[in-house]
Prior knowledge:
Largest sheet: 7 strands, mixed
Distance between the termini: 65 Å
Low-confidence stretches: none
Bound molecules: 6-O-phosphono-beta-D-fructofuranose
Radius of gyration: 22 Å
Mean pLDDT: 97
Amino acid sequence: MRKRLGILTAGGDCPGLNAVIRAVVRRALEDDAEVIGVKNGWRGLAEGDVEPLTRASVTGILPRGGTILGTSRLNPLDSPQTLDRVKRNWSKFGLEALIVVGGEGSLAAAYDIWRDHNFPIVGIPKTIDNDIRGTDFTFGFDTAVGVVTDAVDRLHSTAESHHRVMVVEVMGRHTGWIAAYGGIAGGADVVLVPERPFRLSRVCELLKHRENQGRAFSIIVVAEDAKPHPDEDFLTGDVREQIYRHDRLGGIGTVLGGEIEACTGIETRVTKLGYVQRGGTPSAFDRVLATRLGVKAFEMAQAGEFGCMAALQGNKIVSFPLKEAVSELKRLDDEIYKVAEVFFG
Length: 345
Ligand code: F6P
């Protein structure tokens, strides 16, 4: 009998998901195993929405953004009825293992389902945020940093022409990886991240210093969850609630831009990069990483290495326990932030 395993993509999409799906299918074909594509994350298993993935289904998808399987944020553990439906469909489709390609939330759910309900699951970390422990990088991150870098490059020329401050708000949820890497690569003059609450007075001081030195334009990259230091908080309760919503962050750039203009007198504009950071074709790095992780995850499933995820450590792809991966977020490395800081002001 041919071995049969499922694959689903869950949580926010990111560039490289199709490269992973292709890699799992192509590696499975080598072993004459069958891959069932589960549609829209766990929802597909709850609703019985699946499709067998053949060589033809993955042809031409390597450079495509998004995910051919669709995605959702449904957590099967949110209701006993959903979990029952998932269990029934699991048996109906005869799955012997499931590869869950997910970010921090989806991998945490995958870990719980493996631990508490014995589902044979192998994880693959994906997210533009790069916030998952146990892997040096997640695929999607490099592409997102490329988008930020390109945007900062473009903003430089217009900022310089108009002698303006440009505030660029980037994604990253609760960590500052995208902001720090994008800021370093784009040559930002200030980078603000959630890991380091910032002082407005210090930011304005740096901008004024630049102006006094004859550099009458500046670029500030701010992560969506960056917060003012409590000693210098300029956010009212309502505004704070609007910006730091549990399910959706965004808006600190606009408020910060207003504060900067008021305190420095320098004309300031704000750009929120938003979902363009997540869309489009994956970079070569992300394609290679996603492909390597996909091949490894299939091999882990074949070897019965469940409750673990494929991960990049150094230049090796290894197996890493989901328990540790989801125990806490991988915060921005201090060393990286210090490098960004060298170029402040
Ligand atoms: O986790 C990826 C990410 O793009 C974050 O950077 C961002 O905060 C969040 O997803 C946005 O989520 P949604 O797609 O639910 O709006």
